[in-house]
Amino acid sequence: MKRLFFVPRGRSTSERLARGLLLAGVFALAAAAYQKNFERVIAGVEARGVVADPAGTLTREDRLWLLEAAEHLRGRFGLELAVRLGSEAAPPASNNPKKIVVYAAPDCAGSRVALPPLAAAGLPAGLPADLAREHLDAACRAGKAREGVLAVVGLLVSALDEAADKAKGDDT
User: Do the strands 99-104 and 112-114 form a parallel or antiparallel pair, or are they unpaired?
Assistant: First the structure.
C-alpha cells in the first residue's frame, strides 16, 4: 500500500500523530502570522488614506486620535476624513460627496477645509473658511501647525455632533 505524501512518518501511531499535530501547528502559526501581517498592512494603508504628513509634524498619538475621529465620522455620519499636512500642492477638490478634507498649507496662507454639501448645510455658514483661516493658517504662522490641525478636526467633529443632536431634538 502506498503511503500518502502528506502523512508524517514515524515508528508508532503516537509518533505519527505527534508529528502530524506539530505539522498542523506550524501551518496554523504561519496562517496566524500571515493574518496579523495583513491586518497591519491594511491599517497602514487606511492610516495613509486618512492622514498624509510627509514632514512628520504629527506624533503617533495624534495619528491614532485622527484615525479615531475618522472612525467616529464614518460610523455616525458615513463621512470620510482626509487630513493633508505640508504637501507642496493643495489636493484637488474632492468629487466624493462624503469626504471631509482638511489641508494645512506649508506657506501658512492657503489652508482649506472642504466639507460635503450635506454636512456643510447643517453647520454655520462660513465655518470651513473660518477654520482654515483662523485655526490652520494662524496656528501655522505661530509655529503650531500640529495643534491647529487637531483643533480643526476636533471642532468639526463637535460641530457635526451638535448639529446632528439638534436635528434629532436632543438639545444636549
Answer: antiparallel
- pLDDT, one tens digit per residue, over 43-73 is 666 556 788 888 788 888 998 899 899 999 9
Burial of residue 104, with CB atoms counted within 10 A of its CB: 0-12 exposed, 13-18 middle, 19 or more buried: buried
Maximum Cα–Cα distance for the chain, whole Å? 83
Report yes or no: 122 and 114 within 8 Å, Cβ to Cβ.
no
Question: How far is Cα 116 from Cα 131, in angstroms, rounded to an integer?
Answer: 15
User: In this structure, are residues 82 and 102 in contact, taking their beta carbons and an 8 Å threshold?
Assistant: yes
Distance CA 52, CA 87 (A): 8
Instruction: Look at residue 125 and give its three-state secondary structure.
Output: coil
What's the number of CA atoms in the CB half-sphere (13 Å) around residue 20? 13
Q: Are 104 and 136 in contact (CB under 8 A)?
A: yes
Q: Is 139 helix (H, G, I), strand (E, B) or coil?
A: helix
Cα–Cα distance measured from residue 77 to residue 7, given in angstroms and rounded to the nearest whole number: 54
Query: What pLDDT, in 10s, does the model give residues 67-77?
Result: 899 999 999 99
Distance of alpha carbon 67 from alpha carbon 41, whole angstroms: 15
